[in-house]
UniProtKB/TrEMBL annotation:
It holds the Pfam family DUF1798. InterPro entries: YppE-like, YppE-like_sf. It comes from Neobacillus rhizophilus. This is DUF1798 family protein.
Amino acid sequence: MDREIEHLTTELLSFNQEFLRHFQEARETGSEQNFDEVIKPFANKVNSINGEWKEEMKKWLINFPLKHIRIQQVESVSEHIEQLSIQAFFPKTSKSRFLNAQRTVEFFLTEVLKEVNKEKRDAT
């Protein structure tokens, strides 16, 4: 289970960086991407990984409750990821709101990886 969570979390961290790149590009150019050709396929790919991650995280937290990571936080971060995967492409997206959500996702996913690595160290 730890390996799967580590893999999915790493993928989501990569997507989170991609959200930022798309957002910066949209802000610089002022143009929107085609929804059906670019945004929707990208968001679907992100949401597929995000859904798997959320389910694995819930199972993990039920079996191994953690002090600093709660299921409600997982739900919230998952929602942020869904929103960011679409909002990143629109230049009129609120910059502060987008960046706050993006940083929240970055911080939380990094914390999850720290916990997974801690679990692996403790197991040896």
